[in-house]
């Protein structure tokens, strides 16, 4: 028996070591591939870093050039001012009038300084060696340069000598200005402008703040470890990090062009250079460890993979050698897990939830994705690509960019909060977010700003609009938050390149604005074959409801109402909706489709539907009659406040009254007189709700001269008197909850 046990143990151990050796053999290709990828990525990361640094220093230098040119232009504008040209004179030539005007000169100087204040330290002007003009007033020439603003590199005599020197513009070397009244010093670059005014040389000095230039460079840098050196075209240092100010260090850095690697204090650094239009040389100094650190992660991953292979090899070898292995069962389990957690299944689950369905069947997958407790919200992101994107970028590159947008959005957001990104339409994305902690909302907002900054460098090619829904306590409320995000997205400004609209900051109206007049105009557009009238009226209806804060739920009801108008008109003509549009589009327009569209896409589908109705129903004669009716309606809309009646309208159209009345009734289904009255009552309702005018005044403004007629018509169409209608509006306003 003992011999049998030893044989069994030896057999299992032999199998164990044999399987283990197979696992360990995988270490060789893993390590080789790891090192190959490591060295390949060092080159890639280096190229990416150098490109980013070059692009960053170019954009920063252009901003600084703008600062300098704006300062120069502002100074020239000041010197060319009529008041300055007439009254800025040496002290011994000042008349009483000129002395009185000195306050005007200081005010204009203050105005000029305010224009360029964000990036300058001081600004002053003088015409002799007695007085200095500043935005705060006049100061003694000698006291100013020897006490209040003493320039280390330029003594009082230098500034006095400028009055005798023929020049128009100079950029002086950087110097420290000692300020006695603040007991502080500031390093500045003096920009000096000079001009003859009435035979006297006037000198204006604008001190550009070195600190503010450095702050701008640091604030905009793409890598926190990057340092800067800026020199003028003579090689004088203008701006430099304190650690790079040594002459030998500056010489080493400025002796290279383009992108190169040098050794500074035994540290390897990457130096990039750029010459701005202003003639300044910009250098960035970044440790090469920054891109090597990224590649070092690959070595770390390789080491961990090797370690895990050893651990898994030991564990699995033991299991394979001692337990019965069932490959068929394991394959089925693996397939089931893949199906449960595949990207397609997850997207289907979120689409199901956003469509307003119950959560029960997807609770497991939501838990697995980390959507558990806290608050839940949606935000919508929409990219609009400009013409230059299609003309300047090749189609293969465009496809690659568009395919990676989802990964970029997810990559930024998922670093800060639990989030999932769903692509709903081309270039349209919905992000579901779980805010588990109080600080998560701030992190989420910061992530959106980071996305904006990421794409702001490409504003030439695209614009980005973001709408944020309200946060809700239940995961099942994501559909409501999604609707709010869609409404916020619809409120974004089409002229803005990058914009975020938060629905929590917008009012919500649990109703929608839609009247008989609105419906009649759309029907008239259908009967007249005027697609432009239909589109204009739909846009006006939607814009009005957006401005009034109509909620997503009621906006959807309004869109269904607009669709119903077309269905009813088509039914009158004997046409069913499915003869005009596909069933999938029909389900979207009646609000029963899982497909997710934003408001503009929904309107586009409605326009397509109405266009198909016109294509199926309009003949040449109907179009001509419809256009005439459209002219009549337009005339009524403009002249309803005047004395308006059938004969006058017919005269304006050069037609008989009988023909106009009959044609209007046939095309619109409404008597001409009734339409005029309805239009007037609708305008009266607007005045009752938005003004404090009396009833007589309102009647006169809408073209009804009799107070009794106004009351009778208002009650006929609205069921209440004007006073009662205004009281109802006031009561509704009182009952509204305070924000």
Automatic annotation (TrEMBL):
The chain crosses the membrane at residues 20-40, 298-320. The keyword DNA-binding applies. InterPro entries: CdaR_GGDEF, Homeodomain-like_sf, HTH_AraC. Keywords: DNA-binding, Membrane, Transcription, Transcription regulation, Transmembrane, Transmembrane helix. Pfam families: GGDEF_2, HTH_18. Gene3D superfamilies: Homeodomain-like. Residues 630-728 form the HTH araC/xylS-type domain. This is Helix-turn-helix transcriptional regulator. It comes from Paenibacillus agricola. It comes from the Bacteria. SMART domains: HTH_ARAC. PANTHER family: ARAC-FAMILY TRANSCRIPTIONAL REGULATOR, HTH-TYPE TRANSCRIPTIONAL REGULATOR EXSA.
């Amino acid at each position: 028996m003992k011999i049998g046990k030893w044989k069994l143990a030896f057999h299992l151990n032999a199998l164990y070591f044999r399987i283990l050796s197979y696992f360990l053999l995988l270490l060789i290709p893993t390590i080789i591939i790891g090192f190959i990828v490591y060295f390949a990525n060092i080159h890639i990361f280096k190229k990416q870093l150098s490109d980013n640094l070059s692009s960053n220093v170019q954009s920063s230098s252009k901003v600084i050039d703008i600062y300098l040119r704006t300062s120069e232009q502002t100074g020239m504008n000041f010197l060319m001012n009529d008041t300055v040209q007439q009254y800025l004179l040496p002290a011994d030539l000042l008349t009483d009038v000129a002395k009185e005007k000195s306050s005007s000169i200081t005010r204009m100087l203050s105005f000029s300084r305010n224009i360029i204040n964000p990036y300058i330290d001081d600004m002053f002007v003088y015409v002799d060696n007695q007085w200095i003009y500043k935005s705060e007033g006049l100061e003694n020439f000698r006291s100013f340069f020897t006490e209040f603003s003493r320039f280390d590199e330029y003594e009082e005599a230098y500034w006095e000598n400028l009055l005798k020197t023929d020049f128009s513009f100079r950029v002086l070397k950087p110097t420290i200005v000692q300020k006695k009244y603040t007991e502080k010093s500031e390093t500045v670059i003096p920009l000096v402008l000079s001009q003859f005014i009435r035979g006297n040389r006037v000198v204006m000095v604008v001190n550009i703040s070195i600190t503010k230039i450095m702050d701008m460079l640091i604030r905009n840098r793409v890598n926190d470890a990057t340092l800067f050196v800026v020199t003028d075209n003579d090689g004088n240092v203008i701006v430099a990090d304190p650690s790079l100010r040594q002459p030998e260090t500056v010489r080493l850095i400025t002796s290279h062009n383009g992108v190169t690697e040098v050794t500074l204090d035994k540290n390897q650094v990457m130096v990039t250079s750029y010459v701005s239009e202003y003639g300044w040389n910009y250098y960035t100094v970044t440790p090469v460890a920054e891109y090597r650190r990224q590649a070092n992660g690959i070595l770390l991953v390789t080491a961990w993979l090797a370690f895990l292979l050893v651990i898994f090899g030991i564990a699995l070898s033991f299991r394979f050698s001692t337990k019965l292995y069932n490959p068929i069962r394991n394959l089925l389990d693996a397939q089931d897990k893949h199906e449960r957690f595949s990207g397609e299944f997850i997207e289907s689950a979120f689409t199901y939830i956003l469509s307003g369905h119950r959560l029960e069947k997807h609770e497991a997958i939501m838990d697995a994705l980390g959507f558990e407790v806290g608050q839940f919200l949606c935000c919508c992101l929409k990219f609009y690509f400009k013409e230059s994107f299609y003309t300047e970028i090749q189609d293969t590159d465009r496809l690659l960019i568009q395919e990676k947008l989802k990964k970029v959005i997810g990559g930024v957001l998922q670093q800060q909060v639990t989030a999932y990104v769903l692509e709903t339409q081309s270039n349209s994305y919905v992000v579901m977010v779980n805010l588990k902690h109080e600080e998560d909302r701030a992190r989420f907002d910061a992530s959106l700003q980071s996305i904006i900054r990421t794409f702001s460098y490409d504003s030439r090619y695209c614009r980005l609009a973001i709408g944020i829904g309200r946060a809700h306590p239940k995961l099942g409320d994501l559909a409501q938050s999604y609707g709010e995000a869609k409404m916020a997205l619809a409120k974004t400004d089409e002229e803005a390149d990058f914009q975020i609209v938060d629905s929590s900051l917008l009012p919500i109206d649990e109703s929608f604005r839609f009247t008989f007049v609105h419906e009649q105009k759309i029907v008239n557009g259908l009967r007249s074959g005027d697609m432009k009238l239909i589109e204009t009226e739909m846009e006006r209806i939607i814009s009005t409801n957006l401005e009034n804060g109509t909620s997503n739920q009621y906006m959807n009801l309004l869109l269904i109402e607009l669709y119903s108008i077309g269905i009813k008109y088509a039914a009158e003509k004997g046409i069913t909706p499915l003869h005009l549009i596909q069933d999938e589009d029909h389900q979207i327009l009646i609000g029963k489709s899982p497909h997710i569209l934003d408001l503009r896409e929904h309107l586009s589908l409605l326009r397509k539907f109405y266009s198909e109705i016109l294509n199926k129903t309009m003949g040449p004669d109907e179009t001509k009659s419809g256009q005439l009716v459209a002219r009549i309606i337009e005339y009524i809309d403009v002249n309803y406040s005047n004395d308006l009646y059938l004969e006058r309208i017919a005269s304006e159209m050069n037609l008989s009254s009988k023909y106009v009345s009959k044609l209007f009734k046939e095309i619109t289904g409404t008597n001409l007189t009734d339409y005029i009255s309805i239009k007037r009552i609708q305008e009266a309702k607007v005045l009752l709700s938005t003004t404090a005018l009396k009833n007589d005044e309102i009647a006169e403004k809408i073209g009804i001269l009799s107070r009794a007629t106004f009351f009778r018509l208002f009650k006929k169409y609205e069921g209440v008197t004007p006073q009662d209608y205004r009281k109802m509006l006031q009561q509704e306003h009182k009952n509204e909850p305070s924000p």
